[in-house]
Amino acid sequence: MVTSTDYGRVARFTAVFTFFVTLLSLGIALLLAVKADKVLRGASSYKTLLMWVYAVAPPVAGLIGVLLFDQHVGPIVELFALFGWKMQIGVSYFDTSFAMIVTAVWKQIPVNFIFFLSGLQGISKSVQEAASIDCRSGFRRFWTVTFPLLAPTGFFLLIINITYAFFDTFGIIDVIVKNEPGNNPVTLVYKVYLDGFRGNDLGGSSAQSVILMVMVFILTIVQFRLIERRVHYT
Amino acid sequence: MATITLDTVRKVYGGNVEAVKGVSIDIADGEFIVLVGPSGCGKSTLLRMMAGLEEITTGDIRIGDRVVNNVDPADRDIAMVFQNYALYPHMTVYNNLAYGLKNRGMAKDEIDRRVKEAARILEIGDYLERKPRALSGGQRQRVAMGRAIVREPAAFLFDEPLSNLDAKLRVQMRVEIKRLQRALGTTSVYVTHDQLEAMTLADRLVVLNGGNIEQIGAPIDVYDKPASTFVASFIGSPAMNLLKVKADGNGLALATGTGLKGPNTKGRDAYIIGIRPEHLEVVSAPGEGDGIHLEASVNVLEPVGAESYLYSSFADGGDEILVRVSSHARHEPDEKLYLRAAPENIHYFDAETGQRID
């Protein structure tokens, strides 16, 4: 099983998918949270606008993603067509991966946003004021004071997001590949389902799920070992 | 080193709440100024405007010769000590001190020299590699001071830096701040609601009330000649006794009730007289000597160690008066008390405006 090219391909896609989903959903959410923290007027409507997606179930998010990326009526497809990119979801491997990542990121941003925003609001105002007296550049101030103080939140979200990309994106992937995995990109957890319930290979499917569990286990240990050491908890 | 000039500085929040109402102060180079007043008097807002943490609605603030209204806090050449210290929790003490210097592009060895020097002065050399959470309140306070000192700024701004410390440490740090400021000769503005801190630290006091300056002056002048009833009751502990009086024939009497006798030296129909508790003398019989004479009865004797406070009231109620007596004095409740205040120790205030009458 481990030596099968198919499994290797899916594992590679899962790694790439997880990397981009985590990076983009954390990055964009942090940017939005930092901006939202500074908004004084209309702050609550801005936040509501960002957070409602949180309440959408993954398959529904996948469905919305499918609509947005639809070959004929999808506004995103139309938008990219203007730049000369003819997207073919479900046909082109790259285009399908792209749609999956965008939908998965979009679905995850609200959660990260809420946590980052509350993390930002938990940073003492006078510490930020002291920093504004000590450091003129807002950018530098962010990376030397705000970001390190957000690190506990960031670390927590990193683990949550990796787990999300590994497992919780199932619904989104299922809707986008429309039960026609064929040559389409799928993640390891989706492959567990495909092989077990579509391919009737319960043994192989079980073996895969054990490997998946071990992988997540190792990943979490590595994170705790490497990253948590650099995290400061107040 | 620099002068700080405030020229009719106003702060209006949300278009209608006026927190600071046109305050002007000239602070000399190297002077220690204390802004004192009850909460909500605008003292912190004023300090934050000097620091650049708060916009100035109208008026000008100059540090040295430069109008700093629109200058970034980092470029104002000031250092601020915050009430809760505001140390960077993720940095060691060394980095807390060095952070502001690094950001100004100072050479590493110069930073090191300054940090070591500040650590020596403040006796925090042993903690340089610790994080703030591993320090006690007093040590954190020293680090916060150190962060201000290393900058060698034109001015120090202190925002109630001692209010989070326990009473003993507070006294100790108070003396230390004073000593340090003397040694460095840096212009300092210090905000506090504690009148004792204000009295002991200040070269000049600025008493604020409701966004206005009530009085500016050396602590002892403010104490000896309070400009208004507000200052009289705020500066000095225990507070000054303020009694409403009216003309009565050739003399004076309480506005409500009996128990006071004295000459009407100001020739007015009604005013307020102020007598500090330490200036009331217990005498054996009524009417001895000049000045004002009171007749009251004892309510409570409160010993505080070095002295005792005698709370007493007039026969027909009204204002309570407080007398400072020797700790060995013995007084029983309801005991009849004859009190006298010498003419030079009596303050007169306008009954309507509360302003001092000389």
Topology, element by element:
The complex is a heterodimer of chains A (234) and B (358).
Chain A: H1 5-38, H2 43-51, H3 58-68, H4 75-82, H5 93-121, H6 125-134, H7 138-168, H8 170-177, H9 188-198, H10 202-226
Helix pairs in contact in A: 1-5, 1-7, 3-5, 3-8, 5-7, 5-8, 6-7, 9-10
Chain B: E1 4-13, E2 17-27, E3 32-36, H1 43-51, E4 58-63, E5 66-67, E6 78-81, H2 93-102, H3 108-122, H4 137-150, E7 155-159, H5 167-184, E8 187-192, H6 195-201, E9 204-209, E10 212-217, H7 219-224, H8 229-234, E11 241-248, E12 251-254, E13 260-263, E14 270-275, E15 281-283, E16 292-303, E17 307-313, E18 320-326, E19 336-341, E20 347-350, E21 356-357
Main location (chain B): membrane
Membrane topology (chain B): Peripheral membrane protein
Organism (chain B): Roseibium aggregatum (strain ATCC 25650 / DSM 13394 / JCM 20685 / NBRC 16684 / NCIMB 2208 / IAM 12614 / B1) (Stappia aggregata)
What does this structure look like?
- The complex is a heterodimer of chains A (234) and B (358).
- With 234 residues, chain A is mainly alpha-helical.
- Chain A has a single domain, classed as MetI-like (MetI-like fold), CATH 1.10.3720.10.
- In chain A, helix 1 packs parallel to helix 5 and helix 3 runs parallel beside helix 8.
- The radius of gyration of chain A is 20 Å and the shape is globular.
- The termini of chain A are far apart.
- Chain B has 358 residues and is α+β, with helices and mostly antiparallel strands.
- Chain B folds into two domains: 229 residues, Rossmann fold; 112 residues, OB fold (Dihydrolipoamide Acetyltransferase, E2P), CATH 2.40.50.140.
- Chain B contains eight helices and 21 strands.
- In chain B, the strands form three sheets. In chain B, strands 11, 12, 13, 14, 15, 16, 17, 18, 19, 20 and 21 form an eleven-stranded antiparallel beta sheet that branches. A six-stranded mixed beta sheet of chain B has the order 6-7-8-3-9-10, sandwiched between helices. A four-stranded antiparallel beta sheet of chain B has the order 2-1-4-5, with helices on one face.
- In chain B, strand 17 and strand 18 form a beta hairpin.
- The mean pLDDT of chain B is 90.
- Classes of the chains: A mainly alpha (234), B alpha+beta (358).
- At the A-B interface, helix 6 and helix 7 of A face strand 6 of B.
